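Sequence, please.
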């Protein structure tokens, strides 16, 4: 390099200029398969390129799909998006390619999960914006239309896939936050004379908030309280036009009458994703806007629940189905992020020599590699074992959830808990291990392009698709209820509770009873013992994971990556 020249910046800069992390990370789906360089599609040997879980059956069609999808991702995410319009246009292209169809959410949900994992890996350096955009488009928007829509809505969805048109999902409101769904103040009032609904945001606190893709989508699934006469029928889903089609994908046109859109502003990460607040000012929407597979309104304003006893779940429960899928996707997203951060950082540490007592200069044989220092070696060993356990657990939950989704059945209580445990434990573990890693790798963790700058993605995962604290509180309440039933019958603690869990549940139940005896209302008693409740729920969650894949002791054998780098 000539004097005065600066080195070019790299996608993944190294604190040691002679270490190219990109070259060292050999095990991620970074590059497209060579056979696809010319743009064609392949039909074999794709297995090694994707992050496929052990439970996906490897029929040749699936292998070929993985190769083609991976190649498409490599093309779409080849360079960082310039802005959120560009990012939206790229998703539009991916949708249009139909490599993953919206209907796969119901017919082949495992494809959606794998597509998402692959995407998290590919987009790692660019941050989480695109993967959030993807899950909102496929799972929350299209998945809800598929689940709740009638034949006309499904036709609209087909057209959107053909045209690469984008949608968003508007549930959260300013004053509802993580309790969205329980609190929906946006109203859709049925006006029989007009044969239409009046969609309205009654006050500022009822504005839809944080809506991903809200500034680039033409359509939205809007959750609003359906009012018929003077009666609230609860939250219902409406397919609403937010904007006209614009000049091209990612650049929608004129905002519809009665809709106001605003930008949530800059975030700490994921700024290639647009997040909007949305308000409706007495916006007329046609009768056909109501997603009407399970309910409808007669012309004279009667509310009809459709499907009779064959209607498998309530409207809100069916929407909740999307959140189950979303929870597993969020858990897998956090897990993949952690895996990739560890892999990349390890590659750097394996190649970075550092001085050690008895060692010499960097070229001396006794020089240690950074990953061999005892605290990092111990961390990698521990992290490997925990990562392997979580991988097995998530694969197991995904498999069971896919079965439930394809059968269209109501998830069992066990399934609901297993999904909650996946979300809480995968995200918490990812946060814990990424934080611990950051404390041990020096200046490397400060460099843009290493992935550490995107760890706020994991914060997002904590409250997305069901806040982890709310999920934990539900587990605690269910345990106390179960304990009460058992105690009332004088029965034994069930075998599925670990002794520690059973002890914690019994103590929590007794503490709540003592508070009740002292005149506290149930809500006050739970508030008083909030810390016991969360501690109990965490034990229960870990026990749920253990019941499926074994405890941490079963996974204590570290994999190859825990071998000291100096002996690799
Ligand atoms: C990047 C991004 C994309 C998003 N995309 C969408 C989207 O497309 N569509 C959509 O509808 N929403 C979306 N959201 C909203 C998201 O799903 C959350 O609901 C929302 O961000 C959380 O709201 P809040 O920050 O107001 O949380 P708050 O409600 O203010 O809660 C803050 C914290 O307080 C605690 N807390 C609150 N209430 C309770 C309680 N009752 N019990 C115990 N603990 C409690 C929880 O730990 C919670 O994390 C998105 C959010 C972000 C950041």
């Amino acid at each position: 390099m000539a004097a005065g020249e600066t080195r070019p910046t790299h996608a993944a800069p190294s604190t040691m200029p002679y270490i190219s992390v990109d070259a060292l990370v050999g095990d991620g789906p970074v590059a497209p398969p060579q056979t696809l360089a010319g743009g064609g599609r392949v039909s074999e040997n794709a297995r090694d390129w994707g992050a496929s879980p052990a439970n996906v059956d490897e029929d040749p069609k699936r292998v070929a799909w993985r190769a083609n999808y991976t190649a498409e991702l490599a093309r779409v995410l080849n360079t960082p998006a310039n802005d959120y319009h560009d990012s939206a246009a790229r998703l539009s292209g991916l949708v249009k390619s139909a490599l993953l169809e919206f209907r796969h959410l119901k017919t082949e949900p495992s494809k959606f999960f794998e597509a998402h994992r692959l995407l998290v890996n590919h987009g790692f350096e660019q941050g989480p914006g695109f993967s959030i955009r993807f899950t909102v488009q496929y799972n929350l928007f299209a998945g809800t239309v598929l689940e709740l829509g009638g034949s006309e809505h499904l036709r609209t969805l087909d057209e959107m896939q053909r045209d690469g048109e984008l949608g968003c999902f508007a549930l959260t409101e300013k004053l509802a936050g993580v309790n969205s769904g329980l609190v929906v103040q946006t109203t859709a009032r049925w006006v029989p004379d007009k044969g239409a609904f009046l969609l309205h945001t009654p006050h500022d606190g009822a504005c839809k908030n944080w809506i991903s893709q809200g500034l680039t989508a033409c359509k939205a699934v809007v959750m609003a309280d359906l009012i018929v006469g003077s009666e609230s029928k609860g939250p219902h889903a409406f397919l609403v036009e937010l904007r006209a089609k614009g000049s091209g994908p990612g650049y929608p046109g004129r905002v519809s009458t009665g809709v106001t859109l605003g930008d949530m502003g800059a975030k700490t990460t994921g700024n290639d994703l647009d997040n909007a607040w949305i308000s409706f000012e007495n916006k007329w929407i046609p009768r056909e806007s109501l997603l009407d597979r399970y309910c409808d309104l007669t012309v004279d304003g009667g509310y009809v629940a459709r499907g009779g006893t064959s209607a498998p779940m309530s409207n809100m429960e069916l929407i909740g189905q999307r959140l189950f899928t979303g929870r597993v996707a969020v858990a897998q997203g956090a897990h993949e992020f952690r895996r990739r951060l560890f892999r990349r950082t390890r590659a750097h540490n394996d190649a970075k020599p550092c001085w050690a007592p008895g060692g010499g200069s960097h070229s001396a044989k006794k020089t240690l590699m950074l990953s061999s220092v005892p605290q990092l070696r111990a961390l990698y060993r521990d992290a490997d074992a925990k990562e392997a356990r979580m991988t097995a657990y998530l694969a197991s939950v995904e498999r069971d959830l896919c079965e439930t989704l394809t059968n269209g059945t109501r998830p069992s209580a066990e399934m609901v808990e297993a999904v909650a445990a996946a979300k809480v434990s995968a995200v918490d573990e990812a946060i814990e291990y990424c934080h611990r890693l950051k404390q041990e790798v020096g200046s490397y963790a400060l460099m843009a392009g290493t992935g550490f700058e995107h760890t706020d993605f994991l914060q997002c995962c904590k409250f997305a698709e069901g806040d982890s604290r709310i999920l934990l509180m539900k587990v605690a309440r269910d345990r106390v209820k179960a304990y009460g039933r058992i105690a009332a019958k004088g029965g034994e603690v069930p075998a599925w509770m670990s002794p520690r869990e059973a002890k914690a549940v019994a103590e929590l139940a007794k503490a709540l009873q003592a508070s009740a005896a002292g005149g506290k209302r149930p809500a006050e008693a739970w508030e008083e013992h909030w810390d016991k409740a969360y501690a109990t729920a965490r034990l229960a969650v870990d026990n749920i994971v253990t019941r499926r894949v074994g405890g941490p002791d079963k996974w204590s054998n570290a994999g190859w990556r825990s071998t000291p780098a100096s002996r690799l």
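The longest helix spans residues 315-351.
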